[in-house]
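Sanity check. The docking grid for tryptophan depends on where the pocket ends up, so I'm generating a full predicted complex first rather than guessing from homology. Inputs follow.
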Amino acid sequence: MPMRVLSGIQPSGALHLGNYFGAIRQFLDLQRDYECHFFIASYHALTTQRDPATLRENIRDVAASYLALGLDPERSVLFDQADLPEHHELAWYLSVICSVGLLQRAHSYKDKIARGLEASHGLFAYPVLMAADILMYNADRVPVGQDQKQHVEIARDLAIRFNNEWGEILRVPEPYILPRSAVVPGLDGAKMSKSYGNTIDLFLEPKPMRKRVMGIITDSTPVEDPKDPDSCTVFILYSLFATDEERESMARRYRDGGYGYGEAKKALLAKIEETFGPLREKRQDWLKRTDDLEDVLARGAERARACAGPLLERIRDAVGLGARVR
Ligand code: ADP
Ligand code: TRP
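Predicted complex below; grid placement will be based on this.
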């Protein structure tokens, strides 16, 4: 059996450098060699978003961004989770074997509650639905950032419990996390996240992009003094784009002194523009071609269903539920 890869991103606003380096860049690499499913985690987004028009817009935005960045709908199965209510059925079979304690230990849930989100059942059960997303396609590897590691481990746990209970049906997945981009820092040096308002969005127009990058917080070491590259957000972000030589060269300038943060920011800005500038228009183009975008998602949903349907039949049979009329 070829190795299978699956991941998803919630449509909860503009994609940023954390999403790109923590997840999407790995999607692009992995789709060359493996069977991949990449989806838009629309049901998950409902845990925090209640405005239907914005949600719809955000779903299209993630789809257009995926395509502009180079996810290839011929190679990979690209779909919207909301087209596959099958995920909820599997989530139920997993729910009945998932202990409450396992979910109570989830950091992401605790963090969200601490930030004032309502402690809803959906938010609490989120890792079970995420496990269903992964196990539904027999994924071996799940490319995500560090913040999602625990969720993938919950999916592993549930796959093992399911197999112990009902027979070896589900594949046990592993997180796929690259150490260098596991936690991408934001403007203030904390983890870049939509919820912290510290993001650098991938498709900002040049002017606001410049403003964001120039706004990265640095310490007050004078220009002429030596600086520590490894504790500087600008250097860390630059390193994600740079070749080894470029990284070494900038690190040397930091250590030698006489190199200001302003200059480093300009070098970072140039990398961002070089990487995402040409894709801005592609994304806009996909956003205009609404019918084509919807077609891509519809075809993706069909392909996802072709995989999910037979597995779900086996699962129903294994747990003792037969299909009477289908
Ligand atoms: P956000 O925290 O901005 O809401 P999401 O939860 O939608 O981001 O994340 C989507 C994907 O991007 C996940 O795989 C997540 O781990 C990854 N990701 C998000 N922020 C970062 C970051 N700062 N560093 C590394 N990966 C990240
Ligand atoms: N929980 C992920 C996030 O917030 C999104 C997600 C939902 C996901 N289902 C998934 C990621 C399955 C990987 C695999 O970013």
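Relevant for the grid: Strands lie at 4-9, 35-40, 77-80, 141-143, 174-176.
Also worth noting: The chain has 13 helices and five strands.
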